[in-house]
Amino acid sequence: MEMDTNGAGTSSAAAGGGGVSTSTSDSSSAAKRNSKKPKYSRFTQQELPACKPILTPGLVITTFTIIGIIFIPIGLVSLSASEHVVEIVDRYDEGCVPPNYSKNKLAYIQSSLTNKSCTRTLNVPKLMKSPVFIYYQLDNFYQNHRRYVKSRSDKQLRSKAYERDTKSCDPEGFVLDGPIVPCGLIAWSLFNDTYGFSVKSKMLEVNKKNIAWDSDKEHKFGSDVYPKNFQSGGLIGGAKLNSSIPLSEQEDLIVWMRTAALPTFRKLYGRIEEDLQANEQITVVIQNNYNTYSFGGKKKLVLSTTSWIGGKNDFLGIAYITVGGLCLFLAVSFILLYVIKPRPLGDPSYLSWNRSPSGHPN
Amino acid sequence: MKRYVYINDDESLQELYCDNQISNRKYTVLNFLPKNLWEQFSRFMNQYFLLIACLQLWSLITPVNPASTWGPLIFIFAVSASKEAWDDYNRYLSDKKANEKEVWVVRQGIKKHVQAQDIHVGNIVWLRENDEVPCDLVLIGTSDPQGLCYVETAALDGETDLKTRVIPSACMGIDFELLHKIKGVIECPNPDKDIRRFDANLRLFPPFIDNDVCPLTIKNTILQSCYLRNTEWACGVAVYTGNETKLGMSRGIPEPKLTAMDAMIDKLTGAIFVFQIVVVMVLGIAGNVWKDTEARKQWYVLYPYEGPWYELLVIPLRFELLCSIMIPISIKVSLDLVKSLYAKFIDWDNEMIDQETGIPSHAANTAISEDLGQVEYILTDKTGTLTENRMIFRRCCISGIFYGNESGDALKDVELLNAVAGSSPDVVRFLTVMAICNTVIPVKSKTGAILYKAQSQDEDALVNAAARLHVVYVNKNANILEIRFNGSVIQYEVLETLEFTSDRKRMSVVVKDCQNGKIILLSKGADEAILPYAYAGQQTRTFIEAVEQYAQLGLRTLCLAWRELKEDEYQEWSLMFKEASSTLVDREWRIAEVCQRLEHDFEILGVTAIEDRLQDGVPETIETLRKAGINFWMLTGDKQNTAIQIALSCNFISPEPKGQLLLIDGKTEDEVCRSLERVLLTMRITSSEPKDVAFVVDGWALEIALKHYRKAFTELAILSRTAICCRVTPSQKAQLVELLKSCDYRTLAIGDGGNDVRMIQQADIGVGISGREGLQAARAADYSIGKFRFLKRLILVHGRYSYNRTAFLSQYSFYKSLVICFIQIFFSFISGVSGTSLFNSVSLMAYNVFYTSVPVLVSVLDKDLSEGTIMQHPKILFYCQAGRLLNPSTFAGWFGRSLFHAIVVFVITIHAYAYEKSEMEELSMVALSGCIWLQAFVVALETNSFTILQHLAIWGNLVAFYVINWIFSAVPSSGMYTIMFRLCRQPSYWITMFLIVAAGMGPVLALKYFRYTYRPSKINTLQQAERMGGPILSLGNIEPQPRSVEKEVSPLSITQPKNRNPVYEPLLSDSPNTTRRSFGSGTPFDFFQSQSRLSSSYSRNCKDN
After folding, report:
1. Total count of domains within chain A
2. pLDDT tens-digit profile of B973-983?
3. Has B381 been annotated as catalytic?
4. Are residues A194 and A258 in the same domain?
5. Which residue among A63, A145, A172 sits closest to B832, beta carbon to beta carbon?
6. B278, B301, B22, B385: which is closest to A171 by C-alpha?
7. Cα(B656)–Cα(B1055) distance, integer angstroms
């Protein structure tokens, strides 16, 4: 090894050593050497101590086993949490249209003369502990449509000073009297179905306070911004707003303005702050105002309890169990493969260069 | 086609030709911005980004804030523009220095000091000793009474010996004073770059009576950038100035070099671009269809029924912008950054510091390190590159006694020292010849030490050796030489000098011993030019043996001889010599003939052996690099025998049983054609055998072959792994590089002299050795190294690592951009194909610029194999050469991975965050953080060696992602106010992240493990072996390690003693054309004979066919 001048490990001093003629080591070059030599550091020499893991069977099999062992319990826990959530989903868009309008639902919903009230009865399958969250669910409603999602003015919502900042709100920015507050398609299409709940003829109190995010109420929607010219144009979209209440307290609007990323979404309507007993019949009186009929969207009323994982959603649990299972499967197959077809790592027989064309690639 | 230069005519020529201002600048202050922008925008990538940035200004279609593209774009442009500006400023400074140098020029008949840039064509320029020539001059006067002057042309052609230049015959004898007033006209061709040719005429006007036209050749010129040496003064007429000089014309702007990898990246970028266009078209059509069918029903979107004319374009353009991140804007910045770091690693490398001079290696071109790992051909110079270009007197044989055989150094041989001390007459005569039979000029330095100025390194070695043996050549005063021997000073008067030519292969001096008045002829030369001329009866057998023996050791031999002349013999000869010296026709030949008449009946004194050592580690380096699959060509100006000899001793070619040497020669087209075809035939037959076949070609045959048989020669070049091209000119070197490049080979040219500059500039990679022939090569080169052996490390370590790292970095850059882009595309399917961006502007910009570029940048520290392993298994370089780590199929792998990861992230996100959790901002952050987690693990999985910096960057980056987003989440006005705090409090967020990581990385890990264990590449196998201390490494240790040079040489030479033909030869003689012209076919020497001898033994195989 001692002659391998550039090999690993040999010191740099040895590199210029062996047998250089004597006449070269005069004093001037020695002086130069000191001045020009770059400073040695492990970084500049690319010699930082490094850990070089390789994919040994042991390491890989252990990894997959551990992942499997961890994931399956987590999956089970998530699944059971999701199973413990009690959820009542009632689709009412179809049922709330009187039979004589069933051929022409659009006319029904667009007419101002028809009676929009509708009564539904829900059965509580299991005890629902307080608080019970009330959601409305819209299907096939593209709150994430580009034209829709951009049509708002955060500045205008935040402060009165930017009332006229409606550039981005087109086509619901201005009416003849001035700017619309809150402007834009999102606000304009505010959901306007209402629900009244009663159990055994007793009205259930629905708490509609604090359904929006606190941060929105405090920072995104100004307490000095009042609705103005809202729904006063030719086209009426969704709900009207009480122009004497500042936006920061219009929680339904605030919830609605948190646009959903998926075409199927639920938004919080309110909370029932008492337990619902199993097998109780809940009567819901729905004011079915919102038009989803033109685009075939569904409307659902959802009552749900919650758990540490959120609402009822089996996806995570199932996914965890699947992934965990697959990992264990992989681990087992790798073990089998290792036993059946052992292959020593770094076997030089795989290094025979003759098997690959080592000469000219072209 | 001609230019007429009126000498010393101040009026007429001022405006006709350019002044002597040299300009290497690319820009001026005024045109910098437009020109630079134009250059930058001529690159496709930049045009693309500019288009995207402009489109983003249209708010109707932009999904994100335009600043997210404009910011990086302007930054990138500013960086490269300021780099260009800085380079150009430095060029300006160096030009200015040259332009403002003061020179003496005759103006209105008076010598004046003017700046070099004010020299005009026709001016008379005066130079003093050691001045640099400011422009191309035709000599009209020198201090030498015979009208000679010496110039050093190293900067022009790289030849270090001094050249003689002579004033035209018409100017001969013009008085010093009259030179100011000389008038005349020079008719010369328009400027060209041929430094060997100057066909012009001079006619002087009255009163300079010589009214005839006097022909001028290149011998009558001194060219820009040469230095005047050993001549007190010289003056000449400026004929070409400024950028129109021979040097200026041949300079040319070196083209920016593009690495094979860059080309591949560009190709892949193009493919991605096409893919992007397809995606955009499909989505655009889908979007418009959806809009017309579905969106009209979505009343809350309020689509107007009548849109503007461009309505159909809006959605496709939106998608174009959404998908524009497919081509990562960061890739150029990242690549530039890591490339400059690769270059820094080369600069910093302690193992590539020349220990003798302390000069570290330097990467002047920071952009092409990856190419080092893909080199297929190395074209190397010989002298100074493979050898040290330092001649050392090693052994001698004086009247049959060998000195220095035991110790390897005659200067330390006690017997010789004793003989010198005892004033043994043979030895003293031998040493006297060594000391004075030369053209060396001793110069006393201020400290009193004597320095020798020699035209050739061999003479330098001999004079110095003589001085060490107490025969000190002290002084030369006019024609009187002084020698100090054992305290006494002996004086000789030089009567004649019979100069060396490559055809005579010897030189002689005639001196008169001032003590006793004897006239002596002292000669030295090649064995075949001296030994046959020994006086009848002298036994030359021992000398022949000595020559053989020394040649086998790879030493350059010279025979020394002398003869006492009779007074009348000398006088008679002297007349003939004078006559020959003044002939106009075939002067060189006449002189040679006359010399021949004196140089006979020698008393042979002995043989000297001079070593031009191979540099340390050259054979090992060549062996290792050849194992790595790199082909070597040697291109040298030296003669064939010397080249072959060096080639043998440095593993370049193998000796006879294993290797075979084929010769291409011939002086006419037919001969060359025949020999080319013969060689080609042999080559085709033997290409399947495991035999080292090399071909040898000389400059003359090469010129014919390249001109008339280019196709056949190209085929030969492809077939042959080794070639030796001797007696080639700088431009032929460049042509050969060009030839190999045209066959799509990656070429590396390495050289040390100015004659290598063109080849260095022409090659894909130019490496200069900052050696003894000056720094021209090193300056022109992309890399300069101190020693040839550093090439091994440069290629195998730096080149290979650079290639691997860039391969990972570039593909990863595309991967990460594709991931986020695919997610956007998937999202568009659930957002009504309307072109909504899932991610906000800040995230999108930060994703490319911060979140994903930092971890991958530390991949510049990644090492897949340790340096030692690579050195032991150089064949592993094959993976880089063949581009196995970056090609369309590996890229397809990364493409598939990005698609898979995008699906994983997207599907898991929209399912885990469905229903009441489907808030846009939250969902986008979940998807984004899913990507970031995956990035971290992808980088971790692809990293081979983790240093602390990698851990910091990979995991620190993950932490930084959260910190940055927490900061953004704390700003009320930002779009994502409180989002990240909310998410981090949700257990389901973390569960989702782990799910994404496990689902995304599990299959990748499993696949990688499977391939690693059951379908391992050579790299994998070596990795395993290296880290487990497996059998391969121990096997490597048993491998024969490099042996010393001495051992290397001797076994080789035994097999080929006949071909050893070491002769005295200056490093680089004049061009072959001149010697051929003067001698024609009547050469009495066996240059061509020796070739045929060669061919008979080497191409035995051909004759059998």
Report:
1. 2
2. 777 889 999 99
3. yes
4. yes
5. A145
6. B301
7. 7
